[in-house]
Amino acid sequence: MADPRIIDIELDERTIIWRSADVEQERKVAIFDLLEANRFRPLRAYSDGYEGPYAVKLRVEEGRLAIDILRQDKSLLETLVLGLIRFRRAIKDYFAICDSYFQAIRQATPAQIETIDMARRGVHNQAAELLIERLEGKIEVDFDTARRLFTLICVLHIKG
């Protein structure tokens, strides 16, 4: 029976040099929310008919996003590699708006925080749509799953 969802997700920690407490909290929330509810269905038919659930490992190699798709027992099904060039602007914008947001929650008015948060959500939503587009024909994901995966992709790009 098909079970098109992620039950475990891992980031390749070798590519991450440092995370602030704010970013670490974002990572934890994204993983928690992703594991609570997601839709993740690779479109390739596997020879043994495997249709989930999946473990996923994300890493960046030579400027590309590598997505290891694994069976529940962690045996590798396939690795999908996506170029990240189209994501550079979204990642840069997301980092900038998140920095503003984290600063604002410490010292801004509620109205200012709300304005920045709306901008942050807008950037995040656009990036999720881009990820869905880039995964088209490879992996079917819902919008919330794409948003959470994009957050984790951003975490992989932190270089200190």
Account of the 3D structure:
The protein has 160 residues and is α+β, with helices and mostly antiparallel strands. The protein has one domain (6-156). It is 48% helix and 22% strand. It has helices at 21-36, 88-107, 110-135, 143-156, and strands at residues 6-11, 40-42, 54-61, 64-70, 76-83, 139-141. The longest helix is centred in the C-terminal third of the chain and has 26 residues, at 110-135. The model has no long low-confidence stretch (mean pLDDT 88).
Instruction: Please tell me what the overall shape is.
Output: elongated
Strand order of the largest sheet: 1-3-4-5
**Total count of helical runs of at least 4 residues:** 4
Low-confidence stretches: none
Structural class: alpha+beta
Helix fraction? 40-55%
Main sheet makeup: 4 strands, mixed
Beta content comes to 15-25%
Strand tally: 6
Please report the distance between the alpha carbons of the first and last residues. Answer: 44 Å
Radius of gyration: 16 Å
H-E order = EHEEEEHHEH
Number of domains: 1
Average pLDDT for all residues: 88
